[in-house]
Amino acid sequence: MRDLEELQQVRDPSVLRWHPELAETLVALGHLDQAQSLLDDTRRTATDLGRDAVLPSLERTQALLDAARGDYGTAARRLNDAADRLHDLPLERGRTLLALSHTERRGRRRASARTAAQSAIDLFTAHQAHPWAQTAAHTLSRLEAAPTDNNARPRLTSAEQRCAELAAAGASNRDIATALTVSVKTVEATLTRVYRKLGLHSRFQLAHAVTPARE
């Protein structure tokens, strides 16, 4: 994309916003100097052209770069600031909150990491960004896992297990009620107990925690 834009003499980073994505990939691959150079160039061009809407996504990637260098405090501050500026772009805000969760976890601030992950889940779910919601739910489930050696999990009753399996497979509460020959209110109460026992907050998390039954 960069080569194509250079051939077409496109300088505006708001036309095709590949810059933070490439920089984030470079960070993941450990090419920190290349990532920093790209971010610096893009930020300078965006500022010169008055494209302020590009800057929060660049700040998210800059924060990931800070975290890769071990500066988790600066990274968290950048991510919080970027999230505050992304209210009109909910999916970008969700991605930023998810990055904040990872950063806070690495900085050993698990409570803040859980809060950020849950906020990301809520945003992704509200906007039906299901793969992102599943990723955020997986992040939250890891944060909420009890730090024990045996990783013991609370036991579910047979009714709770079956209800959880059907929900994890994607069945609605009404479908579950029909399959188990119970009321919808009974299903709701049963799932509430399952969530509480397993420390879960959504069906996305349940899908990762419970293996759906095979017919």
Automatic annotation (TrEMBL):
Sorted UniProt keywords: DNA-binding, Transcription, Transcription regulation
Task: Indicate the segments forming the HTH luxR-type domain, all copies.
Answer: 149-214
Tell me the superkingdom of the source. Bacteria
**InterPro entries on file:** Sig_transdc_resp-reg_C-effctor, Tscrpt_reg_LuxR_C, WH-like_DNA-bd_sf
Q: What is this protein called?
A: LuxR C-terminal-related transcriptional regulator
Source organism: Streptomyces litmocidini
